[in-house]
Design brief:
The complex is a heterodimer of chains A (265) and B (157). Chain A is of the alpha+beta class and 265 residues long. Chain A folds into three domains: 46 residues, Uridine Diphospho-n-acetylenolpyruvylglucosamine Reductase, domain 2; 110 residues, Uridine Diphospho-n-acetylenolpyruvylglucosamine Reductase, domain 3 (2-Layer Sandwich); 95 residues, Enolase-like, domain 1 (2-Layer Sandwich). In chain A, the strands form four sheets. A five-stranded antiparallel beta sheet of chain A has the order 4-5-10-6-7. The longest helix of chain A has 19 residues. With 157 residues, chain B is of the alpha+beta class. Chain B is built from five helices and five strands, in the order E-E-H-E-E-E-H-H-H-H. Chain B has a five-stranded mixed beta sheet with strand order 2-1-5-3-4, with helices on both faces. The longest helix of chain B has 18 residues. Chain B is globular. The N and C termini of chain B lie far apart (41 Å). The chains are: A alpha+beta (265), B alpha+beta (157). At the A-B interface, strand 1, helix 2 and helix 6 of A face strand 4 and helix 3 of B.
Chain lengths: 265, 157
């Protein structure tokens, strides 16, 4: 790892001020992607500004069907929240299958969506749930937040503070993990809310997470695994790499969507 | 340089380290607690698992500075004097290790696993143990006896 200077922020204002003073700083939350990336010398921020100790960014708040999750809330906390599981078990289940137990104790929802790894799980949930991403500057719909592979609408000095969504009538997430890395080869989040189905796909798209309106239309009129069969998944939009070609991934997307619909019930 | 003050196995320790120093480097090289191992060094294998504020984490994937102010338990802190922790005893009695390199991480992961399942009142059966070992690799592939050891200890913890 190249040299860096560590700072611990006490508040988001403090973090933003520290960012302004530094030459080429990065915010770090759990660090489960950033620290390994720095170890491989694929990232070399001059400064690291740690957001993990900002209390205002932690915790899960539930008000009726509205769920707000602080950006510094760990995957383990989301996975084990019984209150959240009563309202939206799909997101708990998703969080409980990110990485491994040790990674889930450190990694946070804010860190995951800020990184927008094309094979990460949370971006699919954010789009599938129609979540809003709250930052130190604004509130953005998830679809406007995720711009492309490892790219978001975040500015350099902007911090995600929380995400919020209305719990759907039903939802589920199904992923096919790469047997070695366990990252999603294809992960599909489906949600049904008041007759409107949403389908978000991670891991498979050549430009990161995306909504699949064809499957959404099919599921809105007929919520069943069969409805998914007739929808078209365009191979031209799929990733093609040594782990699986575009045709394979297009098929996986459908299979995962079917499994998710079946799991949502 | 970063000043790091942490409580390790019940004792307050501190040191001046480069900001880029990993927690596992601080534990092994500054504190000379070499029971915590570095296997893959890429967050995969879990040989470096320690507990930070009571939760299992991979000490190769966080900076010592990130852990400043926390309480750390390493494999050296599990036994009570000469009396082994029930998980250590179970690994010994069930032949839960072959070369032994992954064992400290396995045991730290296993005690965390048992704690979480007990706290949430869930049953830690064989399938659950195998799933929970997602983040720990045994290069000798000795999983069968590792799982047996954890099952054995879970009933005694």
């Amino acid at each position: 790892m190249y040299e860096t200077v560590y700072h611990r922020a006490t508040s988001t204002d403090d973090a933003v001020a520290k960012m302004a003073e530094a030459e080429d700083a990065k915010f770090v939350s759990g660090g489960m992607t950033l620290i390994p990336t720095m170890k491989q010398r694929l990232a070399a921020p001059s400064d690291l500004i740690d957001l993990r100790h900002i209390d205002a960014m932690k915790g899960i708040a539930i008000d009726g069907k509205k769920v707000t999750i602080g950006a510094a809330t760990t995957h383990a906390e989301v996975a084990s929240s019984s209150e959240l599981a009563d309202l939206c078990p799909a997101i708990c289940n998703l969080a409980g299958h990110i990485g491994d137990p040790h990674v889930r104790h450190m990694g946070t929802i804010g860190g995951s969506i800020a990184n927008n790894d094309p094979a990460a799980d949370y971006p699919a949930a954010m789009i599938g749930l129609g979540a809003e991403i709250m930052t130190t500057k604004r509130t953005l719909p998830a679809e406007d937040f995720f711009v492309g592979m490892f790219e978001t609408a975040l500015e350099d000095d902007e911090i995600i503070t929380a995400v919020s969504f209305t719990a759907p009538d039903k939802a589920a997430y199904s992923k096919f993990p790469n047997p070695a890395s366990r990252y999603a080869m294809a992960g599909v989040f489906v949600a049904m809310n008041g007759g409107d189905a949403r389908v978000a796909v991670t891991g498979a798209g050549s430009d990161g997470v995306f909504r699949h309106t064809g499957m959404e239309d099919a599921l809105s009129s007929n919520w069943s695994a069969d409805a998914v069969s007739d929808a078209e998944v365009d191979e031209g939009d799929m990733l093609s790499d040594l782990h699986g070609d575009a045709r394979y991934r297009a098929n996986l997307v459908k299979v995962m969507a079917k499994r998710a619909v079946a799991a949502a019930g | 340089m970063a000043s790091v003050s942490i409580k390790v196995n019940g004792k307050d320790v501190s040191g001046e380290v480069e900001d880029r120093t990993l927690l596992v480097e601080f534990i092994r090289e500054n504190l000379r607690l070499t029971g915590t191992h570095v296997g893959c060094d890429t967050s995969q294998c879990g040989a470096c698992v320690v507990h930070m504020d009571g939760k299992a984490i991979k000490s190769c994937s966080i900076l010592a500075a990130q852990a400043n102010g926390s309480e750390i338990t390493t494999i050296e802190g599990l036994a009570n004097g000469s009396e082994l922790h029930p998980m250590q005893t179970a690994f010994k009695e069930n032949h839960g290790l072959q070369c032994g390199f992954c064992t400290p991480g396995m045991i730290m992961a296993a005690t965390d696993m048992v704690r979480r399942y007990k706290e949430s009142g869930r049953e830690l059966d064989e399938t659950a143990i195998r799933e929970e070992l997602e983040g720990n690799i045994c290069r000798c592939t000795g999983y069968h006896n590792i799982v047996k050891s954890i099952q054995d200890a879970a009933s005694k913890m």
